[in-house]
Specification:
- The mean pLDDT is about 95.
- The relative contact order is 0.17.
- The protein has 12 helices and 15 strands.
- By secondary structure, it is α/β, with parallel strands linked by helices.
- The termini are far apart.
- Helix 1 (about 20-35) packs parallel to helix 10 (about 295-310), helix 6 crosses helix 7 (about 190-200) and helix 7 (about 190-200) packs parallel to helix 12 (about 345-355).
- Strand 9 (about 205), helix 8 (about 215-225) and strand 10 (about 230-235) form a beta-alpha-beta unit.
- The structure holds 6-O-phosphono-beta-D-fructofuranose (F6P).
Length: about 350
């Protein structure tokens, strides 16, 4: 009979709130219920690549209890450094996957819980396919773009931050008769913009899944003025393309590029086309930090407990998921096979249209 004694935990990819709540729940369930040792790997897969290995034993106690309220991740996170294409200090790229497996073996782990997004799970699936690497996945990402789950850890807090930003922009927009453009994160999915736009009373919501035209936004502005209002709120997801069909990109510190700049592009184009005084706010990483919302604490806790139970049952290769107010589990391969973006007939797309919010396509 398989006997779990040492469980590994890592947070992989970009951070978000609710990760610590999940770690706390994992430690609680694994130590209290099953009597296991829990080993936290430092900074995603990096802790398994370093020699000596970088890890910490996670124990019950006040430090663990306090994690519930803390943003970020106590283990650190890494969103670059794919071990199959690992950037070396001399500028070369190496396959270091075997070092990860060796690190996993050296630690004597009987299983691992990986709290990550679709990119991390794709890497873990490859590692698991190479042999002795058993893991269970917990979905986290403010983008909410992991398949097969209604919620990922971190999403709701990010939306709350964006709603608060709109609440703060509304009065200053009204005071100065301005159009305020708010650029939010989300990669290629418009979930943050769509949810926050509805909850925060945006007049225009632009998401990557729905192509838009400036003429439609200008028409919406004219309509607003007709009703006697001289200000407006526009929320745009970072992955939205320009009218010419290009992505606005930014250099990513440490190499590569990331989305960013569509807000400034819109500010310029809306001002040129409508003559309205326009300002842009780029919300950025504010969406990833702060105190976790109730939803992210609850989901983080429920996911953590269920993930430990999956390890106890040796049901590896599964991802915990939120489905109709229940924690369930699904094959990881299935979850990452489909990118979870906003469907054009999503309930919230219909809600936005019914509220007279312009999605830029009509
Ligand atoms: O995937 C989470 C996310 O915050 C995206 O919304 C955003 O595009 C990206 O990460 C930002 O990455 P970085 O933290 O490397 O700037």
């Amino acid at each position: 009979m398989f006997d779990t004694r040492r469980l590994g935990v890592m947070t992989s990819g970009g951070d978000c709130t609710g990760l610590n709540a999940c770690i706390r729940a994992i430690v609680h369930r694994a130590v209290e219920t099953y009597g296991w040792e829990v080993i936290g790997i430092r900074e995603g897969t990096r802790g398994l690549l370093e020699r000596p290995l970088e890890y910490v034993e996670l124990k019950l106690g006040k430090e663990n209890d306090d994690l519930l309220r803390e943003g970020g991740t106590v283990l650190g996170a890494l969103n670059k450094g794919d071990p199959f294409n690992y950037p070396m200090p001399d500028g070369s790229v190496q396959d270091r996957s075997a070092d990860i497996l060796e690190g996993y073996r050296q630690l004597g782990l009987d299983g691992m819980i990986v709290i990550g997004g679709d990119g991390s799970f794709a890497i873990m699936e490859k590692l698991a396919g190479m042999g002795d690497f058993r893991y269970v996945g917990v979905p986290k990402t403010i983008d909410n773009d992991v398949g097969s789950t209604e919620y990922s850890i971190g999403f709701v807090t990010a939306v709350n931050v964006a709603v608060e930003a709109l609440d703060r922009l509304a009065p200053t927009a009204a005071s100065h008769d301005r159009v305020m453009v708010l650029e939010v994160m989300g990669r290629d999915a418009g979930h943050i913009a769509l949810h926050a736009g509805i909850a925060g009373g945006a007049d225009v919501i632009l998401i990557p899944e729905i192509p838009w035209k400036l003429g439609n936004i200008a028409r919406k502005m004219t309509q607003i003025r007709k009703y006697g209002r001289n200000h407006a709120l526009v929320i745009v997801a970072e992955g939205v393309k320009t009218e010419e069909g290009a992505h606005e990109m930014q250099e990513r510190g440490g190499g590569g590029v990331r989305y960013g700049g569509i807000g400034h592009y819109l500010e310029r184009r809306i001002s040129e086309t409508t003559g309205s005084e326009t300002r842009v706010t780029v919300l950025g990483h504010v969406q990833r930090g702060g105190t976790p919302s109730m939803r992210d604490r609850v989901i983080g806790s429920a996911f953590g407990v269920h993930a430990v139970d999956l390890v106890a049952e040796r049901r590896f290769g599964r991802m915990v998921a939120w489905h109709q107010r229940q924690v369930v589990d699904v094959p990881i391969a299935e979850a990452i096979a489909q990118y979870n973006c906003v469907s054009p007939d999503d309930t919230l797309v219909r809600t936005a249209r019914a509220l007279g919010i312009s999605l830029g396509d009509s």
